[in-house]
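Handout, section B. The chain below has 336 residues.
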Amino acid sequence: MAFLSLFDALSVRHLVLKNRIVMPPMVTLMGVTTERARAWYAERAKGGVGTIIVEAVKVELFQSGEFEEALKKLAAAIHANGATAAIQLFHANVFNGEQVAASAAGKARTVTREEIGQIIPRYARAAEMAVRAGFDAVEPHGAHGFFMNQFFSPRTNKRDDEYGGSLECRMRFGLDVVKAVRAAIGKAVMFYRHTPEQLGKAGYSLSDSQQFAAKLVQAGVDVLDISPSTRQGEGQEHAALAAAIKSVVKCPVIAVGGMEDPKAATAVLQSGKADLVAVGRQLIADAHWANKVAEDKLDEIIACKKCNQKCFGHLGKGIPIGCAENPKSGFEYLNE
């Protein structure tokens, strides 16, 4: 098999990932508690992906027994089809109905120190419930300018308290969340998604992220999910950024961007730039990409053309995602 490295197992704590292929968290607008969502994720597990990171879920949703039961069904559907189940956790910049941010911007006011003290335990509670529901891993979302990433970036963090100013202080919110999650989930696995550099005026550097990465691992992170901004292009450039983070930590690192090319993904693994590769839009187009690569049936792959018509396009319209190349994508629940 030409792409053997993609199908090597990897141990993380007690967990064994059956291969190096990760489905990254991608918003679907299907709702994670629905039959449609369960069928969507189950099909991609059936298609050979080793690890599925379920799309970002608001930490505020992790409250009721009904929600936990729905999560149990989702985790079970992923496991039943052979994949490891992880779930991404994020804060939606809303506190008690008001828009908040690390520092005031637009309609959002600055989140207070007291509110931060209430938000951090919400991550811990969400993580604990997810693990109790059967998820193998949780992933705090610290990337792409969302709430946690706003604290890390000097562009969006203008605070003058212990959560702002110096790099050490800008790291604090993310580290506090990680420590709280680690205490809540015990020996379960924790991923952390981070954007490695923020280009342009008043952003942060790759060196800043290297220092942060080392601290995250010390605080309890097991896998670093390195997700550059889509504005930085595709492919090997992304892998180089993952490699820069990998150079300062001993934990596994995920590279994303251009990994739908099996040759490129294999080269990234063999060169040691990353330990895992994330394949995103290609798995929207063809849930069975991994199996087809494993079976050397590359000519049967429904290729993602990166047209963004029914993935990002549908998100913009507020409707569940699909694929212009594959009319069955997003409608797996109708075939059950």
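Note. The chain has a mean pLDDT of 96. Compare this with the example in section A.
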